[in-house]
Design a protein that fits this description.
- The strands form four sheets. A five-stranded mixed sheet has the order 1-7-6-4-5, sandwiched between helices. It has a four-stranded mixed sheet with strand order 8-13-12-11, sandwiched between helices. Strands 2-3 form a two-stranded antiparallel ribbon.
- Helix 7 packs parallel to helix 8.
- The two termini are about 15 Å apart.
- It is of the alpha/beta class.
């Protein structure tokens, strides 16, 4: 009998500290309303100084596990999509699995930037289908510690959050990933980056600290390429699923910029009303935005049998992808 996967539990966590646009606009000398007009963001959350990445991730993961009501000893794999791990080495996922009490789980980090959750979901679905065990997918970031607060392009957008989904085995063929498309374009590799710290530009004692912070070279180029990649990936994922755009019930895009979401909806022919939008209150937490949005959407209006979700993202690298996920 063919095994597929289904989303059995959702979770999220956002730090308590809320940062309004006025605080950032005042620091950068921007006129009131500048950020919201260009991004759709009104506020974002930043982690407390004593909070680590696995602190945020474990809260979201615990909520998803409790929401699903599964035995934690049954979870076979923990995937952590993050660009801001607790340490460069070792990976943070084993610590996350320990904090969550998952004694039989493998654990690994995925550094896929804003597309990390989509990539992790594809890998998780494959593991569930192959091994018949639940997989916990968590995406989390503390980007407030990586942005250059003096650089307008990145400091107005990025935030801290965590989201999680637990996939479990299902015997319904219309559950799980019905179609997927993963894409990349290394031509724009350095458009969003942290220049130093890797093997190409390792640490040294006299390093300018700004080289250890995130920078965005050309926001217009990133915007244009993100729209193109997200639209292309979404169309191909829907085609792979053998569906039409009208068969999508809810659209859950990466929350990079409200104008990107609107542009992708327009190009795909999706009604704007079916797009889940969380950027206004929570900003852009990179890979965490899609599972955060899934969890919040499920709380507001629980996902029902027969719903088909379209998830799509694009980000640094550049990487992108789309998934059509069925809930039979």
């Amino acid at each position: 009998m063919t095994v597929s996967s289904r989303m059995a539990g959702f979770g999220h966590y956002v730090p308590e500290h809320r940062v309004d646009n006025a605080e950032i606009e005042g620091r950068l000398g921007l006129e009131p309303g500048w950020i919201e007009k260009r991004t759709g963001i009104r506020a974002r959350r930043w982690a407390a100084q004593d909070q680590t990445l696995t602190d945020l991730a474990s809260k979201a993961g615990a909520m998803a596990l409790d929401n699903a009501g599964v035995d934690r000893r049954s979870v076979g794999l923990t995937l952590l999509a993050t660009s801001t791990p607790d340490h460069l080495l070792p990976p943070s996922a084993p610590l996350l699995a320990l904090k969550l009490g998952l004694p039989a789980s493998g654990a690994i980090d995925l550094a896929g930037a804003c597309s990390g959750f989509v990539y992790a979901l594809v890998l998780a679905d494959g593991f569930v289908r192959t091994h018949g065990k639940p997989v916990l997918v968590v995406a989390a970031n503390i980007l407030s510690r990586r942005i250059n607060i003096e650089e307008r392009a990145s400091s107005v957008v990025f935030s801290d959050a965590a989201g999680a989904v637990l996939l479990v085995p299902s015997l319904k063929p219309q559950d799980g990933i019905l179609g997927a498309e993963l894409v990349s374009n290394g031509k724009f590799y350095d458009q969003i980056s942290i220049p130093a710290g890797g093997s190409a530009h390792p640490f040294h004692p006299n390093m300018d600290t700004r080289e250890l912070q995130m920078t965005m070279r050309d926001g217009k180029t990133v915007f244009t390429e993100a729209v193109r990649m997200m639209t292309q990936a979404a169309n191909k994922a829907i085609q792979c699923a053998g569906l039409a755009i009208s068969d999508v019930h809810r659209f859950v895009p990466h929350q990079a910029n409200m104008r990107i979401v609107d542009a992708v909806c327009d190009l795909l022919g999706l009604p704007p009303a079916i797009a889940v939008r969380t950027i206004e209150e929570f900003g852009n937490s990179s890979a965490a935005t899609i599972p955060l949005s899934l969890s919040l959407a499920n709380l507001e209006r629980p996902f029902m049998p027969g719903e088909r979700l379209l998830l799509v993202a694009a980000g640094a690298g550049m990487t992108g992808g789309a998934v059509v996920f069925g809930n039979a």
